[in-house]
Each structure stands twice: as structure tokens, then as C-alpha cells.
Amino acid sequence: MIDPYATGVLQEEHHERLVADLEGFAKDAGILPQWIYTRLPKEISGAELEYLKNFRKLGGQPAGLCYVGEAKSVQIEQRMAAITGALVRNFIRARMMTLGTFVDASAGHVAADLSCVLIPNFFLTSIDAGMIAKWQLSAIYDTLVERQMHGKQTILYVKDLDLLGKEYGLGFQRLIEDFYLRVKV
Q1: Distance between CA 150 and CA 134 in Å, rounded?
Q2: Which of 117, 121, 146, 174 sits between 20 and 30 A of 95, alpha carbons compared?
Q3: What is the pTM of this model?
Q4: CA 17, CA 71: separation in Å to the nearest integer?
């Protein structure tokens, strides 16, 4: 078994209870345990680091972070898993989930309890958009707005923001443009 303290990211005096149930924390977060004790990748920008440092102070402004563009250097799933791990090791209840899982979690109000939700496939192509029913789009939008109103953070990946506006509706595009910190990837 790997020593989670070996990387120097976790400190025994602060993270003992986290390490005691590392598998449980990772399962709740939707990531592999290694992301909790691994350093953030060097590709993480200053804006992202600042966002993470100030996470507890954000209170819904911005509503979250939105990665925009074609992910080239680090797969967006890896980037979000690393960020989820960083939040978890700072005892923030974060969970990475697919858009389909987010729709299900929204219906069950599970997403409302999480401090941060990370969705690596929020909008990839217009083909993906065709798989989402209009009532689901309403539920997704409502949940995003509700999370913002309650000071909860959401991190999204959108390959093309203009195409998202055409496929999901201008309300989604404006919500992201007006209330999310955008990071080009």
C-alpha cells in the first residue's frame, strides 16, 4: 500500500482522519484516492490556484469555474480530479460527476448538499446536447441557479460556449458568462 503522506501533500497532524478513511472520502468525491494526496498538476493556472485558495470565502460570487475550449495539455477529467482532491484534503465536500449523474442528483436534491460539484462533460458537442430532454435542461439550469443562490460552487467544462448557447439556450450561456470565472484550456 502506498503511504499517502509520502508526497508531502498531506500532513499527519491535519489529515489523520482523512487518511483513516481515504477510500470512503475518495468514493464520496467520485475520484481515486491518489488524487487526494497528489499535488496539483503544473498546468493549473494562477487564476485556478487563486480560486482554490479563496474557495471558502466565495459565497456564490463567482458561482463557480468554467473551463472553456479544447483541452490539450491535461485531460479535463484529470484536471478536475486533481482539483476535487485538493478540495477534499481541505475538508470541503466536493464531488466530481458526469452530467447524467448530476441530472439524477439534482432530482434527488443530492447536489444541493455538496459544497462543490465538478462536471467534466457539461457540454462537449451538439450531439451530446441532443441526448438531454428539455425538462432535464430546465432541471439542470434550476439546480445551477439554486446552487449559486446558496453559495455552493460548481465547476464545469464547456468545449464551446457559443455552441452551448445555441443547444442549451442563451440562459445557460449568460449564466456562465455572467457568474462563472472562465478559464481557457
Answers
A1: 24
A2: 174
A3: 0.92
A4: 35
Cell numbers representing residue 125 in the block:
458537442
Q: What is the pLDDT of residues 139-160, one digit of tens each?
A: 899 999 999 999 999 999 999 9
173 φ/ψ angles, rounded to the nearest 5 degrees: -60, -45
What is the C-alpha R_g of the chain? 16
Q: What range does the domain containing 151 cover?
A: 12-184
Report the alpha-carbon angle 84-89-90, nearest 5: 100
CATH of the domain at 131: 3.40.50.300
> Residue 171 is placed in which grid cell?
440562459
Residue 36 vs residues 4, 11, 87: alpha-carbon distances, Å: 8, 12, 8
Whether the Cβ atoms of residue 46 and residue 183 lie closer than 8 Å to each other: no
